[in-house]
Amino acid sequence: MFKTGLVSVTFRKLSPREIINLVKQANLTAIEWGGDIHVPHGNIKQAEEVSKMTIDAGLEVASYGSYYKPLAEGSPEFSAVLETACALQAKTIRIWAGNKGSHEADERYWDKIIEDTIINAEQAKQVGISLAFEYHGNTLTDTVESALKLIQAINLPNVSLYWQPAVNLPVEKRCADLQQVISYLSNLHVFEWDGWTPLPLEHGSENWRKYFSVIPYDEKVHYTMLEFVIKDSPEQFLQDAKILKMLVNEYNFKK
Predict the structure, then answer these.
(1) Which residues contact 150 (CB under 8 A, 6 or more apart)?
(2) pTM
(3) Rounded to whole angstroms, how far apart are CA atoms 52 and 92?
């Protein structure tokens, strides 16, 4: 089952209240709150206030988009991230698989990321929270093969993978990669780019129909969340939201 949402870091210059109002206007369901600006790691008061605002507006907290990067300089402490996620009432914390590409990392680096994630996942499990890796370049999830190697080595039910279309890969390859990680799929970041140039989501509607068609329907909720809009434009976001809702409704109805 798909639900719609927005990644709050799409609009770093807007306040949480402004983002909530925009998501309500777009008639989306949920927000992934970012840990850098809107709900800073360790700011429990802010997390509680944003959680209340979100729920009072009839929206869901899709996840906590943290910038926890094990072994990376400047990464927040996981204890602060977890405490903030609890105050936010998030059921999933998005984390990063370090800050080295899979081909740069030696086995010692891999082992440390795996060990760190297992320890953190056990702590998160105690409070009913899951962890999900950002699917991203310059981390251990920069290819489908490395993402599978990591998630299978960790092998815990509350550790999963986000997915987003990798830049500069053909659509057919992206679909094939998505097929391989479906068993570990959490949420999806939705955007359309031409290389590194953002496009209106409408330009990629057929591509996203193909991506969605790969994912079997079940009762598990996958939040499909808009990320990146042209020139950080609220007006473009509202147009993209219409396309996302159309695509998600097609998926949920057909299944």
Answers:
(1) 97, 110, 113, 114, 133, 140, 141
(2) 0.96
(3) 17
